[in-house]
Amino acid sequence: MNCNEAIERVSAYVDGELAGAELAALGVHLDACPACRRERSIQSYVRMHVRQHATYRTAPASLARRVRRQLPLERSAPRKSWWRGWAVAIPMPAAGTAFAVLLAGNVYLAAQVPSREQRIADEVVTSHVRALVGDRPFDVASSNRHTVKPWYTGRLDFSPPVADFPEEDFRLAGGRLDYVDSRPVAALVYRHGAHLVDVFVWPASGRSDARASALSTRGYSVRHWVTGGLAYWIASDMDERESERLQRLLEAARGE
Amino acid sequence: MTHSIDAERFQRVAMPHMDAAYNLARWLTGDVHEAEDITQEAMLRAFRFFGSWQSGDPRAWLLKIVRNTYYTHYRRVRARGQVAEFDEELHSAPADDATPALGRVDNDPEHAVSRAQQARLLDAAIEGLPLEFREAIVLRELEDLSYKEIAGVLDIPIGTVMSRISRARRMLAESIHGANEEIHELQRSDRARIRVR
User: Is residue A145 within 8 Å of residue A163, measured between CB atoms?
Assistant: First the structure.
């Protein structure tokens, strides 16, 4: 065994993960090699030091209680999804309280196992709220679709259609990459009056065009549909009429 | 939807590992509230998928769900070029033959760095590790998972696990050594000042 091979295996040696011929060969090499012996003392010291001194973070007791409460203790008939009523009752939060709503909103999982639609709605709203309160709603900031669209090349496995509608007061502000439904997606950001609107787009493989559905999730409105092999999800605090208008604009632009 | 999941069995099998789940989440995000959020969501997902857990270590299985929950929902995707590059030159083994100075601190009572200080320094050093090294070292040293189990949780080959742990420890050695040198320097200048009075 030469030094290059040996030095890579020293950590495994120290962790007791080497066996048989490899273990024997490394032992022989260490006897003859001060550089690798030095590496062994580093690996060994850090291993011991971390195990002795690094902080093992234990969960707060309240967390265990919360999780236990949310696990159904007996099989029950599916209850009416009370979370929607809860979301509607909450007034539109100001940016500062958005995170509080975000955290508390996860409680909706308790009532029943949510459908895929509800889960994705929750994910897009979470992303939307993060973008609102964070300092980086876009990775690429531009109102020019010829800047935004190519930005996604090489970052996504599809090319999202990007359009700007300034005369309709839906102004492209930029775009970012995001993760929804366990896949990377395009999030296009528009300004509409005082609102910031997120339009998430990703390929909807194999599904035929689906008519639009509108949901209310934690006080935000979500509208989604499938057209031309792409799934669109709009997350915003606009009313349904405005979301519908944006949908029509986006669909018309697809034709270009 | 039919529930073939036994909630009581889940409580017995998976709930004891909630601390491990939280610990990993906490080291991944560096944030208490996010860690609670991630843990809660991961436990509920684990419950939902409990039917698919056949056998094997439930802790490793749960930790994998925690990690996936973090990467899917909480980690912001960074534009290319903003991810810190790992500098191999900076972190290779030192050129001289001396034993590293790391052990000196523990054995020298006059220059002792308190245990609390050591813990803080080490925690900061681990938090400073790039994510892929941090998660490997946490799973190894704090959760005591085998290389094979770590490979399963991180979805990488065992050779990569070995390499990441190796490099993580070297990076930590640098951080610890650097921090101890600073403390020694401060203590030396403190003592010099006191003598002058």
Answer: yes
